[in-house]
Design brief:
Length: 466
């Protein structure tokens, strides 16, 4: 704009570049040479451009080319393809990054909120679990075993120096109390909740029997949980029932094997009938039978146990629990019947069958290529009176012991729970005369013939499930 008192020559002195635009003068306008008057009053500048619609439909853009003072369709004839590409690509790239960035932001925020909520839930559950255990221990009063601190546990085990064993629950270490008594200290994994701990303490603290392991104390400090048991110098029964064991010098004779079977039966009878509250173990197997210095069997590991009133025959249970190969049919399929103390009877029967067959790790072969379900095979041997033929039995007395254990076991593993004997009846049969025993019906459950390639399925029977 030119000042009122200025001249065009004054204005032009301040301009670096100047381009003359063609103008069409309307009627009555001043002459084309009177530029000052024209600029002062203003004028209409008109120009003519190409029709850009055709250009845009072809994917081009209209642009002014200063060298020729003409509008051109850029991009269509590709004189400025890079500029056109940038003007087309950059906005779309920015939009794409904006969408992706917003999506990532939303995901990160949602993840943070979810993680925070999950962390708070875990903390709440741990606190709830802690309070449940503390309330339980307080309710036990003087009946609860002695409580130790975690520093006491480290001192008793000499900082966990000697490991006796390990399982899904945690590790077992050898320890020594201040009075000189040797103990076994089971340290539970941090991942294990309070249910296993409560089950163990609630079950064993109510027991006092020669065939049930004694709980001497416990530790509970937040996520640090430990149980102190009497020490069993001979470890578990599992190590003694197979000839492949490294402890072949301590291989049991049939008399001792029979005594162990009776001892375990007495322990289960006590849990089912001798306590004010019936205790169902749900994990009877050789690994959970410990042997003291005199090879007296003691039932251990009550982490899966359930308590129920003595008059209550059926217990409710949401999930199957136990060890594959020893679980009663009704535990994983309610169509077979209700879950009760008869489920422990089934596990006991399978364990005793393993004790009988395990002395020579029997793998019955049929036609040299398939393997039968072991209870079926041993039932056939019982009918043929050939139980002792595969077990190194040298006398009639040993043959009678083995035959009696097999008959009792087959009664225990009957498919229908009501067809199984109680543990009281099991003790009577084991201690009675074999002439008074009847051969039970053949077990209904059996596995189809399998090739040698997948025969490891029966061998992997120590996997715990919950």
């Amino acid at each position: 704009m030119v000042a009122n008192n200025g001249t065009l020559s004054d204005a032009l002195r301040f301009c670096d570049n100047m381009t003359v635009a063609p103008m069409d003068l309307m009627e009555g306008d001043v002459g084309g040479d009177e530029y000052e008057k024209l600029l002062t009053r203003g004028f209409m500048l008109n120009w003519k451009a190409e029709d850009c619609s055709v250009c845009e439909r072809s994917g081009g853009r209209c642009g002014f080319e200063w060298s020729s003072y003409h509008f051109r369709c850029l991009c269509r004839d590709r004189p400025h393809w890079f500029l056109c590409f940038i003007t087309w690509f950059i906005p779309r790239l920015f939009a794409a990054f904006s969408v992706v960035g917003f999506a990532i932001f939303v995901i990160l925020v949602a993840g943070y909120i979810w993680r925070s909520a999950l962390s708070k839930l875990m903390v709440w559950r741990k606190k709830e679990n802690y309070h449940n255990v503390e309330n339980f221990l307080n309710s036990c009063g003087t009946l609860a075993p002695k409580r130790y601190s975690y520093s006491d546990i480290k001192k008793i085990t000499n900082s966990f120096l000697v490991k006796l064993g390990q399982g899904g629950y945690g590790c077992v270490y050898k320890g020594k109390l201040s009075n000189g008594s040797h103990v076994a200290v089971k340290v539970l994994n941090e991942s294990k909740g309070g249910e296993e701990f409560i089950n163990e303490v609630a079950s064993i603290s109510r027991t006092s029997h020669v065939n049930v392991v004694t709980l001497l104390g416990f530790c509970f400090e937040g996520h640090k949980k430990a149980l102190i048991y009497e020490f069993m110098p001979h470890g578990s029964l599992e190590k003694f029932i197979y000839k492949e064991s490294s402890l072949t010098d301590h291989q049991f004779g049939w008399e001792r094997l029979s005594q162990i079977a009776v001892g375990i039966a007495r322990g289960l009878e006590y849990l089912h009938r001798g306590c004010n509250t019936r205790i169902l173990h749900f994990d009877i197997k050789p690994h959970n039978i410990l042997l003291d210095e005199d090879f007296c069997p003691k039932i251990s590991d009550f982490g899966l146990a359930k308590l129920c009133p003595r008059k209550q025959s059926i217990v409710s249970m949401l999930n199957a629990r136990g060890t594959v190969g020893y679980i009663a049919p009704e535990v994983f399929c309610r169509n077979f019947g209700g879950v009760s103390h008869k489920s422990d009877v089934y596990s006991y029967g399978m364990m005793v069958l393993e004790m009988v067959g395990g002395r020579n790790k029997i793998k019955p072969e049929v036609d040299g290529s398939t393997e039968m379900y072991f209870p079926d095979w041993i039932y056939n041997q019982l009918e043929l009176d050939e139980v002792g033929a595969h077990n190194g039995i040298a006398s009639e007395a040993e043959n009678e012991m083995a035959r009696k254990m097999v008959i009792v076991s087959l009664w225990c593993i009957q498919t229908v729970p009501s067809s199984r004997p109680s543990m009281t009846r099991v003790v009577e049969m084991l201690e009675g005369s074999i002439q008074s025993l009847q051969i039970p019906p053949k077990p209904v459950l059996s596995s189809p013939p399998r090739s040698g390639e997948d025969s490891s399925a029966i061998e992997s029977s120590s996997m715990s499930i919950l």
